[in-house]
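Supplementary Data S3. Sequence and structure tokens for construct A.
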Amino acid sequence: MAPAPPLEPAAQAAHGVVAAGEPGAAAASAAAAGGAAAAGAALPSAEVEDAVRRQQIYDAVCAGRLEEALQQVDQHYGLPALDASPGLSFRLKVQRFLELVRARAPPQSILEYGRAQLAPAAAGPEDEELLSDAVSLLAYAEPEASPCGTLLLPGARAELGDRLNGALLAARGRPLAPALERLYRQAAVTLDELRRAHEPRALVLDLHTACMGR
């Protein structure tokens, strides 16, 4: 695999080269947002809006808001866009099941969802194995500590968000990692970390406005 290209200054900031609280941290956050804004200015507004929209969908998945994410997919892309990634629709349904487990919803309601939405949709051995692993979580008082508890890790949400994002890009006939989106996400990560560190100037910076100009 070829080595990754050197990061631009804004991307370096997003990857933590300049840490929150260090001298220049706020400048790094501004540079990250400024880089995203400059990249956005060079592209048609429709592409910028699409990148921002997909970021919002990704964020919703990573926060466990599956219904919100799917509503946005349906509204802006159409649910057939999920077909660009085989098995993605089923994986999203499983994630909804996992979010119910994570929220400690009543076991009966979780099982009813599984019977109605998952069992009929399982299309092969891999789907059936994933479904079995997900259902096994209900046998544990602390499902996160169970053998299949990795399904509940934040990284599983992020992986699913990336997969969904890739399907939406494919549905648009776009490359899987356009430069603008990488820069926007890097800037978003930087700003989020700086806000958690209570960096004052990061708290007042609106990345969406910086990129979209409104």
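Construct B, processed identically:
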Amino acid sequence: MNSEQSIIGARASVMVYDDNLKRWLPSGTSAGLSKVQIYHHQQNNTFRIVGRKLQDHEVVINCSILKGLKYNQATPTFHQWRDSKFVYGLNFSSQHDAEAFARAMVHALDVLSGRLANNPVMGGAMGMGGLPTNGNGFEEDMGYRTMTSEDAAILRQQQQITGQITPSAQTPTSQANQNNIPQSPPTPQGHHRTSR
């Protein structure tokens, strides 16, 4: 019996921030859309994000959602968070997918923090309250770097080469801390991205 259940699925390009190059890069071996899901392990009450490329099913993200994770909606279609090794970004194919994924992420974080009972996500029943945005959200204490117009142009070029251009490959706005990504604090073992 599989005790993991998908609570959301969305289409997005999975990105990782390269601190040395100071830009966002596609996760995995090539750019392209992935199906990104949040799984809930009901017996252990844990959550993880798993993304597989639509084209070849390559796993491009597999990371745990831990209590206290800060999920930042940098733009309506570009969201980001970090673990001990990576800063992840999701460039969603639609604003609808982005909003639904954000609701599921906030739900998972609320369950982990004890603010909500361990209930499955119901359709569109969750409210949008408490979602950080690029207004005065978490940008300062997270130290994230938002995708620049140069990053977006590179992503669009890579997607055109692979024939996978999406309407969300638009330029997110810059933030004050765009070149300052502080080192992540250590987190428990088992927190990794699976990609070969």
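The longest helix spans residues 95-113. DSSP finds three helices and eight strands in the chain.
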